[in-house]
Amino acid sequence: MRPNDRSYLDSHEWAKLDGNIVTVGISDFAVEQLGELVYLDLPDTGSTFSEGEAFGEVESVKAVSDLNCPVAGEVVEVNSDLCDNLENLQNNPFEGGWLLKVKIDGNSLGDMLDLAAYEALVSSQS
Q1: Domain ranges of the chain
Q2: Which pTM was predicted?
Q3: CB–CB of 70/112 below 8 Å?
C-alpha cells in the first residue's frame, strides 16, 4: 500500500515534505516495472538540483532509468548504503529505500500528484 503522506511525479519518484527538507525516493510501481535492480548512482551531499533535473540513475536487468529530482534544492543527506544493498530499495521503497534528502527554499512541493492522482496514473500504465 502506498503512503498517503507523499506526493508523486509521473516519472514515479515520490517526495515527503518535513519542514524545508524533502525526502525523495522511487515508488513501488517503479521498482516493480524495473525488475531486479543491479546498480544505483546517487549524487554527493552538497550537490544542487533544479526541479525535474536528473540526480542519478537506477539500473535493472531490464533497463536504466534516470532519477528525477521533484524539487529544487541542495542535497543534505544521501542514503549511500543503498548502493551496496539494493534489497532495501527493492523490498521497501517507501521507508528504508529512500534515496536522498533535499533542503528547499520554502515549504511547498509544487505541482506534484497526490496519492489519488498517482494511483490513477499507475492503473492507466499497468
Answers
A1: 7-105
A2: 0.94
A3: yes
